[in-house]
Amino acid sequence: MNLGTNEQNAKDIIHEAINAGINYIDTADLYDYGENEKLVGKALKGKRQDTIVATKGGNHFEPNQKGWYWDPSKKYLKEAIKNSLLRLGLDDVDLYQLHGGTIEDPIDEVIETFEELQQEGLIRYFGLSSIRPNVIKSYVDKTTITSNMMQYSLLDRRPEEELLDYLNDHQVSVLVRGALGKGMLTSKGIEQWEKKGSSGFLDYNQDELKQVIENLQTLAQEANITPESIAIHYCLNHPRVSSLILGASRPEQVQNNIEAYYSAPKDQSIIEEVKNMTKQQVYKQHRT
């Protein structure tokens, strides 16, 4: 999502990741209205065998028209995946995700569509990209989804209330987005807070948010690691989290994330310490 539209820069970012051993590439048809998939497809030429490719669908948009609307119908999803494959230059994707979802959706029809796409050989597995407990549970109750992508970080611990354990019990992998909290959980956290924290974040007000960022910076310095490392390994600490989606807009950011991953906190108590520094939130909507 952060690739931008510069083809060479996007290619450099993806190649940097693949050459370093990262093998999960996640995009969506809605990102830059299909342009993101085209960039990903060009960057993957000759490297498809080294990657697990995922995309998402369900947001209906038309070429050369602004705007989109939610459309999880069988007709549209079947059209959307074929358009995604054309843009990616692929015969199939490893994972196709419903990009959102509401409890009012024709869930049985969506599941049927996914299963038919599997039978047609266009997708290998299917999953969701949702933070709505009621939607997630509705799909898990009716079918075997492979994964669910959700926002999770030290600043957004809502999945800990029940969803992480629930998905663990049902053997559904969790793909985490937002682990670095809009960049506020990095070495440049205060700088990012100045840009993005004026309205707070979830139930943190501006001052509370700054305090958490400063505390994280101090803890990281004392442990001789980076804030990124703590943020990344906090999310990976739950057994059901299978992958973090860490966006990058420059190749150097890929390397920074890799270095943070390999610099794991030596003391597990750090995980407990940052947990005590932050809030345990709950989902207030979409519960039933």
Largest sheet properties: 7 strands, parallel
Q: Would you tell me the structural class of the helices and strands?
A: alpha/beta
Number of E-state strands: 9
What is the strand content?
A: 5-15%
Spatially, the strands of the biggest sheet line up as 1-2-5-6-7-8-9
The number of helical runs is: 11
Model regions low in confidence, pLDDT < 50 over at least 5 residues: none
General shape: globular
What's the Cα radius of gyration? 19 Å
The level of helicity is 40-55%
Order of helices and strands: HEHEEEHEHEHEHEHHHEHH
Task: Please tell me about this protein's structure.
The chain is of the alpha/beta class and 288 residues long. It contains eleven helices and nine strands. It has a seven-stranded parallel β-sheet, with helices on one face. The protein has a two-stranded antiparallel sheet with strand order 3-4. Strand 7 (147-151), helix 6 and strand 8 (173-177) form a beta-alpha-beta unit. Helix 1 packs parallel to helix 10 and helix 9 (227-236) packs across helix 10.
Features:
two-stranded antiparallel ribbon; 288 residues; 9 strands; alpha/beta; 11 helices
Draw up the topology in text.
Layout: H1 7-19, E1 24-26, H2 35-43, E2 52-57, E3 59-60, E4 69-70, H3 74-88, E5 93-98, H4 107-119, E6 123-129, H5 133-142, E7 147-151, H6 163-169, E8 173-177, H7 189-196, H8 206-223, H9 227-236, E9 241-245, H10 251-262, H11 269-277
Parallel strand pairs: 1-2, 2-5, 5-6, 6-7, 7-8, 8-9
Antiparallel strand pairs: 3-4
Helix pairs in contact: 1-2, 1-10, 2-3, 9-10
